[in-house]
C-alpha cells in the first residue's frame, strides 16, 4: 500500500521535473540507484555479508568486488608469488599461446546467480562462497563478480575501489547518482592518502635514470624525457 511517512501519502509530489520523473513519463525505465558499501578490509566485507544474510534483504541482488589475490582460481596464477594481475593479463591476451579457460566460463557463474534469483533462492554470499562455486563450475570468480555488478542492488568493496580514480575506471564504477556507504569512515583519510601516493626504491630510480640517459643521448623524444631525467637526478 501507499506509504504514510512522506509527502506522497498526501497526494503531493516533490520535484515533478526531475530527470527520473521525465524518464517515467517517457516510458523509459526508472533509474534505481545502487548501494556501494565500502569497508577498510576484505575481512570486514565477510562480516557485513554475514549480517546481511540474517536480514529480510538477504535475497537482494549483490556482488563483492575484490582483487585477484582473493578471487583468482587459475592453478598457476593463484599459486604464484609474483604479480598476479600481470600474469592474468598475459593469459587473457594469449601472449604465450595460452589462454585462461576459467575466464571463458564466466557466464556459468553469472547464469547460476540469475537462475537462483529467478527462483527466489538468492541469499547473501561471501567471496569464499563465490570462489568455491567458481572452482566447482570452472569459472572465473574475479570477472564474474564484475559482471554481477550490472544487476546488483548492493555492491560491497574495499574503500580504495571507490576513492581511487584509476581503480574506479578499471572496474567501470560510476558513482553518479548512487548511494555510497563507508563503514568506519575515520579511516578514509589514510586510504585517500595511499590512493595518491607511490613508493619507489633508490635502485628503481637509478635504473630509470640510466634508461632516460640512454634515450636523451640518442635523441629519442628528448623534450619528453629530459624533464623526467631531471626529476630522477634530483630525487637520487
From TrEMBL:
Residue intervals of the Helicase ATP-binding domain: 1-232
UniProtKB keywords: ATP-binding, Hydrolase, Nucleotide-binding
PROSITE patterns: HELICASE_ATP_BIND_2
Superkingdom: Eukaryota
Example GO molecular function: ATP binding
GO BP annotations, alphabetical order: double-strand break repair involved in meiotic recombination; nucleotide-excision repair
GO cellular component, one term: nucleus
A Pfam family per the record: DEAD_2
Entries under Gene3D superfamilies matching the protein: P-loop containing nucleotide triphosphate hydrolases
The protein's name: FANCJ protein
Phylogenetic placement of the source organism: Eukaryota, Metazoa, Chordata, Craniata, Vertebrata
The gene coding this protein: Brip1
